[in-house]
Amino acid sequence: MSLRDRLDEELKRAMKARDEIALSAVRLIRSSVKNREIEVRHELDEQEIVEVISSLAKQRRESIRLFGEAGRTDLVEKEEKELALLLGFLPQQLTREELEALVARVIAENGAQGLRDMGKVMKSLMPHVTGRADGSLVSAIVKERLG
């Protein structure tokens, strides 16, 4: 089943269950995908939809951090529920060990020596991890390995 079909099914399920958080999250995904299609002037493929959802998940993580710092537990709870739903549409997340192995392989393939090669490593690495790992974690592991 394609990601678009899964979004449609989840929308129907949320409407029937009267699940307001799931309904708003799925509507947000669908509208973000539609806006991105208008931007790029073509229908998004699966990978591009995953990138849109990854971006939304990143926004939720940042909101959770900021709301947590502000002591707004009610908003943290809502954002966490939306994040869980978003992650359900993304491919299986990589474990830290899998990510470290992938980073080591890409560093070896690129012959990277130090932090000055970080951009080259990240450029090669991101297509493999988009939607499957948090970009800040990937960046931290690359810095750790090159540093």
From TrEMBL:
Annotated Gene3D superfamilies: 1.10.10.410, Uncharacterised protein YqeY/AIM41 PF09424, N-terminal domain (1.10.1510.10)
Pfam families in the cross-refs: YqeY
Superkingdom, natural source: Bacteria
Name of the protein: Aspartyl-tRNA amidotransferase subunit B
Organism: Geotalea uraniireducens
